[in-house]
Amino acid sequence: xxxxxxxxxxxxxxxxxxxxxxxxxxxxxxxxxxxxxxxxxxxxxxxxxxxxxxxxxxxxxxxxxxxxxxxxxxxxxxxxxxxxxxxxxxxxxxxxxxxxxxxxxxxxxxxxxxxxxxxxxxxxxxxxxxxxxxxxxxxxxxxxxxxxxxxxxxxxxxxxxxxxxxxxxxxxxxxxxxxxxxxxxxxxxxxxxxxxxxxxxxxxx
Length: 205
Hints:
3-stranded antiparallel β-sheet; 7 strands; globular
Protein backbone atom coordinates (compact mmCIF):
# COMPACT_ATOMS: atom_id res chain seq x y z
CA UNK A 1 0.00 0.00 0.00
CA UNK A 2 1.39 3.40 -0.99
CA UNK A 3 1.68 6.33 1.42
CA UNK A 4 -1.24 8.11 -0.32
CA UNK A 5 -3.43 5.01 -0.11
CA UNK A 6 -2.55 4.57 3.57
CA UNK A 7 -3.47 8.20 4.29
CA UNK A 8 -6.74 7.81 2.40
CA UNK A 9 -7.62 4.69 4.39
CA UNK A 10 -6.91 6.49 7.69
CA UNK A 11 -9.10 9.46 6.73
CA UNK A 12 -11.89 7.22 5.44
CA UNK A 13 -11.94 5.05 8.58
CA UNK A 14 -12.02 8.09 10.86
CA UNK A 15 -14.83 9.73 8.90
CA UNK A 16 -16.92 6.55 8.83
CA UNK A 17 -16.55 6.31 12.63
CA UNK A 18 -18.22 9.72 12.86
CA UNK A 19 -21.13 8.43 10.79
CA UNK A 20 -21.46 5.30 12.92
CA UNK A 21 -21.66 7.35 16.12
CA UNK A 22 -24.18 9.69 14.50
CA UNK A 23 -26.45 6.73 13.71
CA UNK A 24 -26.75 5.83 17.40
CA UNK A 25 -26.45 9.29 18.97
CA UNK A 26 -29.04 11.72 17.57
CA UNK A 27 -27.82 14.71 19.60
CA UNK A 28 -24.28 14.21 18.27
CA UNK A 29 -25.60 14.02 14.69
CA UNK A 30 -27.70 17.17 15.20
CA UNK A 31 -24.66 19.12 16.47
CA UNK A 32 -22.64 18.12 13.40
CA UNK A 33 -25.51 19.03 11.07
CA UNK A 34 -25.83 22.50 12.60
CA UNK A 35 -22.07 23.03 12.56
CA UNK A 36 -21.91 22.03 8.90
CA UNK A 37 -24.68 24.50 8.04
CA UNK A 38 -22.95 27.29 9.99
CA UNK A 39 -19.46 26.72 8.59
CA UNK A 40 -20.12 25.54 5.03
CA UNK A 41 -23.89 25.82 4.41
CA UNK A 42 -23.85 22.03 4.05
CA UNK A 43 -25.29 19.74 6.74
CA UNK A 44 -23.16 16.85 5.40
CA UNK A 45 -19.84 18.70 5.78
CA UNK A 46 -18.71 16.88 8.92
CA UNK A 47 -19.94 13.44 7.88
CA UNK A 48 -18.23 10.93 5.62
CA UNK A 49 -19.65 11.19 2.10
CA UNK A 50 -19.06 7.59 1.12
CA UNK A 51 -21.10 5.60 -1.37
CA UNK A 52 -23.08 2.45 -0.82
CA UNK A 53 -25.20 0.31 -3.12
CA UNK A 54 -28.49 -1.28 -2.23
CA UNK A 55 -31.40 -2.92 -3.96
CA UNK A 56 -34.96 -3.98 -3.27
CA UNK A 57 -35.33 -7.73 -3.90
CA UNK A 58 -38.51 -8.71 -5.75
CA UNK A 59 -39.08 -12.37 -6.57
CA UNK A 60 -40.80 -13.89 -9.57
CA UNK A 61 -44.11 -14.11 -7.67
CA UNK A 62 -44.09 -10.34 -7.09
CA UNK A 63 -43.09 -10.37 -3.42
CA UNK A 64 -40.77 -7.77 -1.86
CA UNK A 65 -38.34 -8.71 0.90
CA UNK A 66 -36.88 -6.59 3.70
CA UNK A 67 -34.56 -7.77 6.45
CA UNK A 68 -34.06 -6.82 10.09
CA UNK A 69 -30.42 -6.12 10.82
CA UNK A 70 -28.92 -8.02 13.74
CA UNK A 71 -27.86 -6.35 16.98
CA UNK A 72 -24.18 -7.07 16.21
CA UNK A 73 -23.88 -4.77 13.18
CA UNK A 74 -22.43 -1.30 13.76
CA UNK A 75 -24.77 0.67 11.51
CA UNK A 76 -28.49 0.74 12.38
CA UNK A 77 -28.72 -2.45 14.47
CA UNK A 78 -32.29 -3.71 14.70
CA UNK A 79 -33.47 -1.64 11.73
CA UNK A 80 -35.14 -2.94 8.59
CA UNK A 81 -33.15 -2.71 5.37
CA UNK A 82 -32.85 -4.14 1.89
CA UNK A 83 -29.77 -5.89 0.43
CA UNK A 84 -26.59 -3.89 -0.07
CA UNK A 85 -23.23 -2.75 1.22
CA UNK A 86 -20.55 -0.05 1.04
CA UNK A 87 -18.87 0.59 -2.29
CA UNK A 88 -15.07 0.70 -2.31
CA UNK A 89 -14.33 3.88 -4.28
CA UNK A 90 -10.81 3.26 -5.51
CA UNK A 91 -8.24 5.96 -6.17
CA UNK A 92 -7.68 4.59 -9.69
CA UNK A 93 -11.24 5.46 -10.77
CA UNK A 94 -9.95 8.15 -13.15
CA UNK A 95 -7.05 6.12 -14.52
CA UNK A 96 -7.18 4.64 -17.98
CA UNK A 97 -9.39 5.39 -20.95
CA UNK A 98 -12.72 4.13 -19.60
CA UNK A 99 -15.30 6.79 -18.79
CA UNK A 100 -15.14 7.20 -14.97
CA UNK A 101 -18.91 7.57 -14.60
CA UNK A 102 -19.54 4.34 -16.48
CA UNK A 103 -16.75 2.59 -14.56
CA UNK A 104 -18.30 3.73 -11.30
CA UNK A 105 -21.73 2.38 -12.30
CA UNK A 106 -20.20 -0.88 -13.53
CA UNK A 107 -18.39 -1.30 -10.21
CA UNK A 108 -21.66 -0.61 -8.36
CA UNK A 109 -23.54 -3.27 -10.31
CA UNK A 110 -20.75 -5.83 -9.83
CA UNK A 111 -20.74 -5.10 -6.13
CA UNK A 112 -24.49 -5.55 -5.66
CA UNK A 113 -24.38 -8.77 -7.71
CA UNK A 114 -21.75 -10.09 -5.28
CA UNK A 115 -23.99 -9.17 -2.36
CA UNK A 116 -26.78 -11.35 -3.78
CA UNK A 117 -24.37 -14.22 -4.24
CA UNK A 118 -23.00 -13.87 -0.70
CA UNK A 119 -26.28 -13.15 1.11
CA UNK A 120 -28.70 -15.31 -0.87
CA UNK A 121 -26.64 -17.61 -3.12
CA UNK A 122 -28.65 -16.04 -5.91
CA UNK A 123 -27.06 -15.80 -9.36
CA UNK A 124 -29.92 -14.92 -11.74
CA UNK A 125 -30.87 -11.34 -10.94
CA UNK A 126 -31.82 -8.46 -13.24
CA UNK A 127 -30.88 -5.07 -11.78
CA UNK A 128 -32.77 -1.91 -12.72
CA UNK A 129 -31.20 1.39 -11.59
CA UNK A 130 -33.80 3.46 -9.71
CA UNK A 131 -31.81 6.45 -8.45
CA UNK A 132 -29.79 7.90 -5.57
CA UNK A 133 -30.83 7.96 -1.92
CA UNK A 134 -29.01 9.94 0.75
CA UNK A 135 -29.67 11.25 4.24
CA UNK A 136 -27.07 12.16 6.87
CA UNK A 137 -25.48 10.40 8.62
CA UNK A 138 -26.03 7.52 6.17
CA UNK A 139 -24.06 6.98 3.01
CA UNK A 140 -25.28 8.11 -0.38
CA UNK A 141 -26.77 4.95 -1.87
CA UNK A 142 -27.02 3.97 -5.51
CA UNK A 143 -30.32 2.12 -5.57
CA UNK A 144 -31.61 -0.72 -7.72
CA UNK A 145 -34.70 -2.82 -8.13
CA UNK A 146 -33.55 -6.45 -8.18
CA UNK A 147 -35.82 -8.80 -10.12
CA UNK A 148 -35.00 -12.33 -9.00
CA UNK A 149 -35.83 -15.34 -11.15
CA UNK A 150 -36.95 -17.38 -8.14
CA UNK A 151 -40.04 -17.73 -6.01
CA UNK A 152 -40.03 -16.13 -2.57
CA UNK A 153 -39.65 -19.57 -0.98
CA UNK A 154 -36.61 -20.40 -3.14
CA UNK A 155 -35.02 -17.01 -2.48
CA UNK A 156 -35.44 -17.29 1.31
CA UNK A 157 -34.06 -20.82 1.27
CA UNK A 158 -30.90 -19.46 -0.36
CA UNK A 159 -30.73 -16.70 2.25
CA UNK A 160 -30.66 -19.28 5.06
CA UNK A 161 -27.74 -21.15 3.47
CA UNK A 162 -25.63 -18.10 2.59
CA UNK A 163 -22.48 -17.14 4.50
CA UNK A 164 -23.78 -13.69 5.48
CA UNK A 165 -27.18 -14.83 6.71
CA UNK A 166 -26.28 -14.10 10.35
CA UNK A 167 -26.31 -10.35 9.57
CA UNK A 168 -30.12 -10.56 9.55
CA UNK A 169 -32.38 -11.82 12.33
CA UNK A 170 -35.77 -11.58 10.64
CA UNK A 171 -37.28 -11.25 7.19
CA UNK A 172 -40.54 -9.65 6.18
CA UNK A 173 -42.29 -10.51 2.92
CA UNK A 174 -44.44 -7.68 1.58
CA UNK A 175 -46.90 -7.52 -1.27
CA UNK A 176 -46.52 -4.53 -3.56
CA UNK A 177 -49.12 -1.79 -3.50
CA UNK A 178 -50.89 -0.73 -0.32
CA UNK A 179 -49.03 -3.19 1.93
CA UNK A 180 -45.65 -1.78 0.81
CA UNK A 181 -46.89 1.80 1.15
CA UNK A 182 -48.19 1.14 4.68
CA UNK A 183 -44.87 -0.42 5.72
CA UNK A 184 -42.82 2.52 4.41
CA UNK A 185 -45.18 5.05 6.01
CA UNK A 186 -45.75 3.44 9.42
CA UNK A 187 -42.61 1.45 10.31
CA UNK A 188 -40.23 3.79 12.23
CA UNK A 189 -37.18 1.52 12.21
CA UNK A 190 -36.14 1.50 8.55
CA UNK A 191 -32.62 2.50 7.51
CA UNK A 192 -33.13 5.97 5.91
CA UNK A 193 -31.64 5.03 2.54
CA UNK A 194 -33.55 1.75 2.64
CA UNK A 195 -36.79 3.68 3.04
CA UNK A 196 -35.87 5.84 0.03
CA UNK A 197 -35.02 2.72 -1.98
CA UNK A 198 -38.40 1.16 -1.23
CA UNK A 199 -40.18 4.35 -2.32
CA UNK A 200 -38.19 4.51 -5.57
CA UNK A 201 -38.82 0.81 -6.24
CA UNK A 202 -42.56 1.15 -5.62
CA UNK A 203 -42.76 3.62 -8.50
CA UNK A 204 -41.54 0.90 -10.87
CA UNK A 205 -43.60 -2.03 -9.64
